[in-house]
């Protein structure tokens, strides 16, 4: 249940206040020369404390590889890795030991397992996504060989929306600002919105858009494992995600079929579609156009305001969490979205080698 | 890849114009007394030709069980079943043999497999969902024993929206009208909207909402197989689905955390939440509240208007499909949404027996 | 649990006295032109009533394909098939309804499921292996393209042993006699042994040897899914199998390492081994030599002699089963062994495409 | 491919000369209080250097848990663990870098992956079984709650055989001697045999017998995942294993059915069988009797005598490996056999909770 993928498979482990977070990647082909710096770079994009609009916790998040890589090259054997936890301040959580924080997983974990590691959310902590970023960064390096690149960016924070289709944006500017929005003007407003939430000891949600370029036609499975179903599954598995849509999405359902259909045309680059309401996927299989989708993130539950709740003895109580909080997870979630997308594409890239005899 | 589920698993088979559609359900516990009429009833809700607003194709869609059921009871062994195809008019498709219809899977299947059964969409036909409805109907019967009921309904057709939260609706009225909207007034408007599309030889999309009641706290997995991720995966695997959201969904991302958090309260029914922005799922695990989600369906691609496209020799051509079409799949998709939800809940019901020692 | 294989996967269904036996093959690549006659030929080799030394039940065992094959070619989609049961004489089993026959699965099924289809063994009947023979016959056709051929034969019946290494036999003579032993003289003795058992209303066991030629070096996984572990799993899943050994097997454990090691030599066909105690597999991975193994079949439990046992109310009783019985399953098990081996090799053939980048 | 089990699943990682060996156990229920000393004890039984008849390498093999255990109790979340490699003398292997040692995995790994970590066998090293011993030791602790105990012992070394059925042995004496044979007299002879091999710089193989007591009736799956098929798969996945048989095994195939069948009787402990040729498993499912099986280990390939072979440039060469070698792996393999059996039983114990509604 803690394994993601069919062929290129990540099994993740770890709690936020245990020994560390890590995973095993099984099914990565042999012979891939890894650029560790690129992996570390994605970890830094996810890292707390990277800018004034994220949580100020300091976590170096240095990955250590434990197996499967020899002289810098993947061996075809399981790639285990860990990011050791440091400076965890577990005692900060002692007073929350018996409390079910609103909209956290405290209550549901206790109901499921009858026990829980209360320190910092335990397994439900978003810190677990580190494992996904590492695996995704390796998947990205494999995908480069297939000509695939993946770029996510923040397209809405609260009500502040980037009102341009991605095709009119220069996605290479995404990393130019701390909120990871490729439009400088909108980025300013987003940052202001996050700072307001921060000052208010509150949180704010939003939307991340992701675009994959270079996926050839023919990836995806016809029935259950449609390419977008696997992408949606991957995204909905990220902490705080509440929705997923691809191509024309929810809005497109208002169009008529004759407006929505993407007409095929013959170009000097082969068969293409004139429009791309399909989001690059038809019948669950890539058609060679850009694949794009949106992911909705709720405002995360950890805030520093007074809140009512109950404890494990069903007493109604009031809590006012102290410490540092993350007013908006979206900037840090950008590499996580990319990583999960990369894992999905890596799987279908490998599966595509088995399509025909 | 044609298997859905971890424990309660459906493997589906069949093409729209082959011998039939069917599947094998593996992992259904022994001793479940099946009510075949209830299964057949869901098939009838999915069946073409059931009302003036669906396609007028006539398919009886009678299920035959081939194994795993003895004297009306499941045996713990694989339950195989088939719905035999009849009256398929495969020759109607001869002229489309070499054509890539816009926004269909014709092109992508050919790119993936290098071959395809062109008759009626082959494996990509929505007729395959029959297998899911049968398996879902069995899952529903098992879930009744766990106190779980699932009800889906059409909440938007094109721009015609049912603007009430589900809590203000009487969901038992859903089957009272042919569009499966529990609000009679809105249903009228939706029917009119579909009839307009039909007359225009066009199609219209929309949204289905689904509510599951009685799911106890503790179902779902913490990391990848979060309950809502499995639900989203299930829904996105249904033909024509473009988006999924649960609880507060995309809209909820505009709230601040303090508005969005669901405060726990102590009631005479135990610990509950005051609001339900979480949609009954926290940290990927059910919390005992109603689970609700929305599924976006695009206007389907099969329409009877003239359209430009290319054929497999890359010639640009014009097609005007003949015959019968389905102006809006939403009414018939309601039992499919319920079936897929039932498969997900059946899986997590069984998994929940393994949570603790 | 009723699925075999990782990539090339067979899910089987059916009971001996239900509607039929069949399965779904998922993961067979598109574009394989099937020779249905070859499939039917293997079914005939498994069929009861084929000679005087097998059970005289008459089952035509004609396969019907339900999906996944179009114009004789695999489509990459699930291949469903069935062999319909005929002339089942289910009432013959009425008097055994409450009886736990010695060394049958009657008792254990009841303990596991709390219910069972008592007619002809239900799911535990060896008739289920029909599904495997069909899937294996398709796997064989795919393997031909990889240069792999698989040949099994009966090497012992009771105490009557074929005392020659397979390398000294002409395996093409296997089908020349009804016991499927490539040595004519030994075959005579085996047939006599089976006829004696038959006359005595008893059964006799023995050993099947299987040889796979043409498996290239590099198939198999290093740790759990070693090629021989997958072969052993496949064989031990066949009804009545009690043991498996490959290469030098149990006898080889008496040698010293210096006697047992297979020395590498350089030949004009590349690197080869001088001896083949390894049975073509080293470290779980094929080395390019012949792969050979042995499978032990117990004398099957169904016999026509008087026997003591208990019924489901724990009464001690005496039964004397009537009707036809199979004095020795080995001749009919030869194609089953080949089929299961083919499924394993098909899986590793496909997996081998994912080894390196 | 590096994952073992369906529900209680071990994914292992590590090479003999990398950072360490370890794994992730997923699917272990919450609430199991772990006795770490018992885990460590099994590691010590597997450890090199434990007696004069094993290799003299010194490896402390101390397990460190990285996640999933909190205050000594399993949390239902993934249990990651590692045994760090120490004192690896990797340079000892430099001269073997380009050599394909006879009957090792050097050649096959290179053929499969096109690359290999040559140091100490890399992933093919038996050192990987440490991960299995840890996971198996946890499985054992869970099985104790189900009343199951597992005991393996050495029953043959070379030609030195323990010629008594296990029912006449006092298995509690197994750990009394360094060869792990419960019969003191035979143990002496086995030790002498191993010492002779050691002096000769050679190796010797043999057989391990394993007995599981207390497995209730009803564990195992009817078709592919028969209980003995899963056991066989588990055993054949252990390094150096060449064969597996259960119950009457290969010898039993010489009996007639009327001799071989186990008659059911009614006792004050319920329904039992008079004999146990079935080895406690009928139709793939446990029947409540003792489960017993035998595992054949070849003499391992690493020996210190001069041998001919080829290198990766196909040059025929002569090697005389230096250092320490393990003349007989059987004593150290006893806990590995038990661990793998425990993993199989743990899986079926959990699966058995899903049998009926």
TrEMBL record, chains A, B, C, D:
Binding site for NADP(+): 46, 52
Reaction equation(s) it catalyzes: 5-O-(1-carboxyvinyl)-3-phosphoshikimate = chorismate + phosphate
One GO CC annotation: cytosol
A GO biological-process term: aromatic amino acid family biosynthetic process
Keywords: Amino-acid biosynthesis, Aromatic amino acid biosynthesis, FAD, Flavoprotein, FMN, Lyase, NADP
Any single Pfam family the record assigns to this protein: Chorismate_synt
Binding site for FMN: 123-125, 239-240, 283, 298-302, 324
Cofactor note: Reduced FMN (FMNH(2)).
Enzyme category, top tier: lyase
SUPFAM superfamilies from the UniProt entry: Chorismate synthase, AroC
Family of this protein: Belongs to the chorismate synthase family.
Complexes and interactors: Homotetramer.
Protein name: Chorismate synthase
Organism of origin: Mariniphaga anaerophila
Lineage of the organism: Bacteria, Pseudomonadati, Bacteroidota, Bacteroidia, Marinilabiliales
Gene behind the chain: aroC
